[in-house]
Amino acid sequence: MKKYLSKYILLFLICVLLGLGVFLFFSKTEDRNKGQRKTLMNRVTTELSKKGSENIESDLNAMISSNSWEEEYGKSNVPTDIRYMSLSGSEDGMYEITGGTSVWKITEDGTVKGFLVFSFNDDHMLRTIIICEASIAVVFVIAVLFFIYIDRKVIMPFNTLSEYPERIAKNENAAALPESKNRYFGRYIWGMNMLRDRLSGDNRKLRQMEKEQLTLVSTIAHGIKTPVANIKLYSEAIKSGLYRDDGVPDKKDSEVADKITKNADDITDLLQELLESASKGVVVFEPKKESFYLTEIEEFIKREYDNRLSVLRIPYEIDMRSKVMINSDKTGIIRILTQLMENAIKYGDGRGIKVIVDKNEDGYTFAVRDKGSRIPEGEMPYIFNSFWRGSNAADVEGNGLGLYEASFIARKLGGDIVARYLDETEETELEVFLPL
């Protein structure tokens, strides 16, 4: 919600300015009305004073019955009642009795003959101001509730979903989005899950084809290496004169043997290049370093795995032993931890997963532990090879590239990854080290 605080402040300021504008408008209207009333009262008082009649009350009634003041001064500025009070005196001026009543004196030759009491109905102005200000307050509350609704139902879900297509595009492991009946994103989520399943299926087929291609190339390469090695042996034998009757090396035979050896070496180099090029495109990653806090890694793991592991009933914990800033590739680290978490989920026994993030004098460590079937000691050196799958993976879906990708990215970032079995806790630990 902090992210959208500025728009609430802006809305509040708009409503305050609107309320202030309404207040100033009605204040100005009230001042204008007071001026109109004073003009009317002065006119009535002056006309009665000039007449000098002894029956002022009769003249006043005649004036009231024949007036057209509403057209000239406005209905709100016409007094609801005018009363005459006979009194003598010498004071000059107007006396305010109440907010809606004014008293004006009638004089003749400087002598006060009486007073006119003008009564006005001022309640409507106050009611109007209260209604307007209350309406603005209601509009503000409704607008705030509307923005909160939009935030909760549209903006916040969209921000959550906005990273998903990018992750799919990068071929990162992405769990299916939780199904939702949200009227705005329900169909979108359904469509994204369909796209994810389709791309995952295509990706599995592609990985299988890559594996078959690499296997074919590797088989051909290794098949060629044996006769090439034999050719080099024969050339060395020829060069040594082994096949001559006298057993003495011949200069021309040696020159031919050297050429044969060189060609055999060229074939070996070509085979090595062929093997490297065949496996080069299996994982694509180029590091782009940036500064970020380790807590951002913790937030990603919680956002990605809290709900999923809860559904799978797998307890897990994150041990953040350091929360400092790191200069590395955040996307790369996330890809590594994603592969390690997926590995722990697939091959663990569900008793628990632990993630440890720490920093020491040499660099940063990211470790994932799970309590599952132990990897045979003899297979440990091979678990980071491409397309390699252990003896415990027969019934588990996979392509043998997860740990290879994690190792590949770790090396790209200047670090390494190791696997070990912790006898004291009966856990398999995969630990990534990245230098400072």
User: What CATH architecture of the largest domain would you give?
Assistant: 2-Layer Sandwich
Order of the strands making up the biggest sheet: 6-8-9-11-10
DSSP strand content: 15-25%
CATH class of the largest domain: Alpha Beta
Globally, the shape reads: rod-shaped
Distance between the termini: 35 Å
* Number of domain modules: 3
Radius of gyration: 46 Å
Question: What is the mean pLDDT?
Answer: 78
CATH homologous superfamily title of the largest domain: Histidine kinase-like ATPase, C-terminal domain
Percent in helix: 55-70%
The count of strands amounts to 11
Q: How would a crystallographer describe the biggest sheet?
A: 5 strands, mixed
Question: Which SSEs are present, and which pair or pack?
Answer:
Layout: H1 5-51, H2 56-65, H3 69-73, E1 81-89, E2 95-98, E3 101-108, E4 111-119, H4 123-169, H5 186-240, H6 251-280, E5 290-293, H7 294-312, E6 316-320, E7 325-328, H8 330-347, E8 348-359, E9 363-372, H9 402-412, E10 416-422, E11 427-435
Helix pairs in contact: 1-4, 4-5, 5-6, 8-9
